[in-house]
Specification:
alpha+beta; Double Stranded RNA Binding Domain; 4-stranded antiparallel β-sheet; 6 helices; about 20% strand; elongated
Amino acid sequence: MKRSETISALAAALVLAQGKIKGAVRDATNPFFQSKYSDLESVIAAVKVPLLENGITFLQGLQDAEGGVAVETMLLHTSGEWISSVYSLPATKNDPQAYGSAASYAKRYGLKALLGVPDSDDDGNAATAAVAPPVAVPKRGRPVGPRKPAAPSTAAPDPETGEILPERPADYWGSIAEATSLDELQAIWSVIPVRERPEYLAIKNARKSALSNPASEEGVI
């Protein structure tokens, strides 16, 4: 963590601000894994007013990081005093979407960590562990062919939020066949081990084609 030469005025203001900062609402949902989390907008909503009321604003900037992104979060007081910290995160793959997701995650958790923002359930209930959904059964007949059991379940990081996901389903066939969007299909595909993907490639391509062209969906799966 970095800081200005003195932070006495910032520290006093920060004590008052943190006394008013409430938890960030878990209002975003991972559609495949059915887990809820506080998105960046929710975290900002929780901290912005208490900070401004006490003469504090925050700045976040992206920095270069090998294989991913780094976000520096700075708290800046009207006195000119400041503190900052850097949160680095690797991207799940080398494309703009993965880097964008990593940047969003780093901004969210960098701000939460610097201000000590807890998560808060929007329904007032205690948080519960996310449970992997049951394997879906396709509504229409699926392609006929041998099906091999998937490898033993293992935990994996959520490609969107970076959080540790529950154990993956024992079989991906039905989940792929019932994907309701291209994003959901990609999320399912991303947790299938590379060595197992060839046996699911045909149904994945068929589902992708159906989702890309809804008019031709009937009879594809």
